[in-house]
Amino acid sequence: MFGEKVIELLKEAERNRDTIDQYNDEKVRQIIEEMHVLFKMNMADANATTENKSLWTTVQVRHSALERNKRCLLAYLYSRMNKIKTLRWEFGSVLPPDVRELLSDSEYEWFSKYSTNLASYMRSLGQDIGYSGIDLTENLRPPKSLYIEVLCLTDYGKLELEDGDVILLKKNSRHFLPTSECQTLIRQGILKQIM
Amino acid sequence: MFVEDIRNDFYNTLLGNRVLLLVHYDVDAICACKILQGLFKCDNISYTLVPVGGISELKTAYEENNEEIKYVVLLNCGGTIDLVDILQPDEEVVFFVLDSHKPTDICNVYSDGQVRLVYKDEEENIPNFDDIFKDDDEEDENEEVESGREGIEAVVERRRARKAWEERRHTLMFNYTQFSYYGKPSACVLLELAARSSRLCQAALWASAVATAAHSALHARSPARCLLDAEALHRYVAAAQRHDDSAANRTACVVMEKDAWLPLYREWTLEAALSHAATLAPKLKLYARSGSSRLRQLLADMGFPLQQARQAYRSMDVELRRSLLTALETAAPKHKLPVPTKATFILQRPHLPPLAALDTVYVIMAHIEHETMPKAEGFQQALAALEVSGDNEAWRRGAAAARKCLQAVASLVHTTLSSRRLLLAGPFSYFIVQEGTPEAGVVRGPLWLGEAARWVAGGCARPLLASAPGPPATCLLLGLPPRFDHEPRNLFGAAFEQAATKSGVSVSLDYVDSSVITLPTSQRAQFLDALTALLA
């Protein structure tokens, strides 16, 4: 049957909507091959039977199969593209290697282009009010407060803040710091947020 | 220098700057810190909070954190020492001191802006500037210029005047510094600040309610003063209640109620709470053989069956629980007990049992002087225990620890009194907690040792010294003034200092409260002898 493979491909992609899986190079190649075969058959039939209208139905069926394949493939690629877009917002401009492996070469190329575009857009933001760009990916949801209260769990040593202040992180000292400064330290387990 | 306007000159100066917050380990300081943290959170003032236990810790904490810091706020520490001399700060650093330990060091009072005292206590009789400071250089220069007979006479005259002035200065300073005592709770001062910046919330009310309860439970202030301190709080609580009657069932709120002045009785059994109440237990003479029968007699007079009194208060008969206050009040005079009920603050929480301010005082004490937990960790727990919303895990753990501590204190007091370990030495009596006893671990800090000492003294007219083993080979010595429950001014601060210089014992006067010192255990007897000689 025509178009079976492409349905398999879509079903596979549909199974995990939220995550991205390996680009199915093999199946896509097979589908394209099938389309080439269909196209050649159609060419042959169309050339041979300009007079004989009995074959027209066959050609038409093949053609719609061809178009269906094309449409499904595009849908596959488009949904992947949307997923890659969200990857940029979640991971930043550098993808972790395991995620990188899931993309095909051209997808990766698209990703880097998208990334550069986004970066240059973010740099251009707010220049008229004196900021040199705003990192839009930092707070996808508005934060509850700009500062959070943290408790230091280990003797970490000195930490220099963005505004140049130096603070000493010592065990069991409490600090009230800008959220952006603390996040990595919280992830590392040096600080603990106090609710 | 005193801050004139607490909002503009103190709080608004801090806006937009990084602040170093140094907080002493005591209940009032922790409550004050909670209020200040709430204010800082509202205004996004970033701060670093370091708890400090004594003067040397204060020094290291300042040295470690002074980079790029312009404003330092000290809560219940640093007021009684010359900050500029001890910390050697840069000139642009400003210290805001809110210390309920009195008397305030005279150099801090007359500092020209580097040290700013947030609250001026009217009770303090601070000597005038001209009486204690004089420009010496000027006079020296004048002395050299003049000569001849008249000149010599003038010089002699001046010297005499100077000597008289010096004597006068000495008496003034002596009168000023001879007693150490406590002023208005810092949390109440900060409550005023919160009210003036319209940021009064239940958390701030609760924190300052706990602080006032602490001052009266620990006898830091005389009962009349405690009542006056809480006056503002009464007003704010009433106003808040009127304000959000509709929200009362949904959020935690502080209310004022008449309540039994028994520690943790809601978390305990009635019998245990009665036998561990610092106001009742000494009067019931529980250390004696007849003590337990007296307690049973009291319970019988109250009409509480033993079976009920011995089970968890929460599972007690509802009728009995309701009649507890009246029963206590009617039964107490029969046994010549002080009035066991008081109007106190209670935190009503939705869907959770209410918390009493008095209980929270003991919870915080148990956290900061925990037997096994390091002090700094206990400090964090104590802050968490002051939280008003949510199920308070830290509070419950603290309550369990506090029960243990109270039991240890009670058994310590009973053994001390029943085996006649309370010794008389001239003008004062003293007792020593031996190293290795099971209770020694609990009373190694000044708070619980003070609790035990007050219990032993039981309001008697003699001053009392208590000593407990501290870190290896040293011991803690704590002085309690006579009649501490009426006039809590403490003479031991100055006495310890003098005895130390006279006896030559290497005493460490590191505690912010000057009536608590540490000294090597081997030299304790020598020191006590010197103290006896001094006070006789």
UniProtKB/TrEMBL annotation, chain A:
User: Domain DNA replication complex GINS protein PSF1 C-terminal: where?
Assistant: 144-194
List the CDD domains hit by this protein, alphabetically. GINS_A_psf1 (cd11710), GINS_B_Psf1 (cd21696)
Provide the alphabetized UniProt keywords.
Answer: DNA replication, Nucleus
Answer yes or no on keyword Ribosomal protein: no
The role this protein plays is:
Required for correct functioning of the GINS complex, a complex that plays an essential role in the initiation of DNA replication, and progression of DNA replication forks. GINS complex seems to bind preferentially to single-stranded DNA.
The text of the family note is: Belongs to the GINS1/PSF1 family.
Annotated protein name in UniProt: DNA replication complex GINS protein PSF1
Species assigned in the record = Parnassius apollo (Apollo butterfly)
From TrEMBL, chain B:
Where does the protein end up? Answer: Nucleus
The GO terms this record gives for MF are: chromatin binding; DNA replication origin binding; single-stranded DNA binding
Gene Ontology cellular-component terms for this entry are:
DNA replication preinitiation complex
Q: Classify the main location.
A: nucleus
Q: Classify the source by domain of life.
A: Eukaryota
For this UniProt record, the keywords arranged alphabetically read as follows: Cell cycle, DNA replication, Nucleus
Nucleus is among the record's keywords: yes
Q: Which SUPFAM superfamilies match?
A: DHH phosphoesterases (SSF64182)
Is Hydrolase there in the keyword field? no
Q: Which GO terms describe its biological process?
A: DNA replication initiation; double-strand break repair via break-induced replication; mitotic DNA replication preinitiation complex assembly
| Annotated InterPro entries | CDC45 (IPR003874), DHH_sf (IPR038763)
The name under which this protein is listed is Cell division control protein 45 homolog
Tell me its family.
Belongs to the CDC45 family.
